[in-house]
Amino acid sequence: MASGGFTITLGEGATVSTRYVLGLLNSRLLFWILRGISNVFRGGWITCTKQYFGELPIRVIDLTNKSDVAAHDTIVSLVEQMLSLHRQRAVVKTPHEQTALDRQIAATDTRIDRLVYDLYGLTEEEIKLVEGT
């Protein structure tokens, strides 16, 4: 990705966690959407600027819907777990430990993607399209 260097902040009235938004932004689905709306350069690089991020559909959570709240909370928890796993990965020394953490990171990433697909109501066909399978 090529980025112009910007930050994303949630407004004062935001009812979702920044970790929730982080989970969405790092999901396969939103990256797939970003790739479709941004400039693509030689080698597959994409433009990752405020202009394109502003077009991404951030799923609003209905706080009166228990299912929405549960999905939000689970994504937040998984993002916190992912951040912890990456911190651990940065300090382990042995290839065995690195491999074990890499597997946990991949599994956590897959769980987040599945939750995001569910939140956005994707069908199995649409998931296959996003995942390129």
Give a structural overview.
With 133 residues, this protein is mainly alpha-helical. It has one domain. The protein has helices spanning 18-25, 28-37, 50-53, 66-91, 95-119, 124-131, and strands at residues 2-3, 47-48. Strands 1-2 form a two-stranded parallel sheet. Helix 1 (18-25) packs across helix 4 (66-91) and helix 4 runs antiparallel to helix 5 (95-119). The radius of gyration is 16 Å and the shape is globular. The mean pLDDT is 92.
Name the features.
133 residues; 6 helices; two-stranded parallel ribbon
For the record, the count of structural domains works out to: 1
Average pLDDT metric = 92
Helix content: 55-70%
**Could you tell me the number of beta strands?**
2
- The Cα radius of gyration reads 16 Å
Give the biggest sheet.
2 strands, parallel
**3D shape:** globular
* Secondary structural class: mainly alpha
The succession of helices and strands, N to C, reads: EHHEHHHH
Number of helical stretches of at least 4 residues: 6
How far from one another are the termini?
A: 22 Å
Strand order, sheet with most strands: 1-2
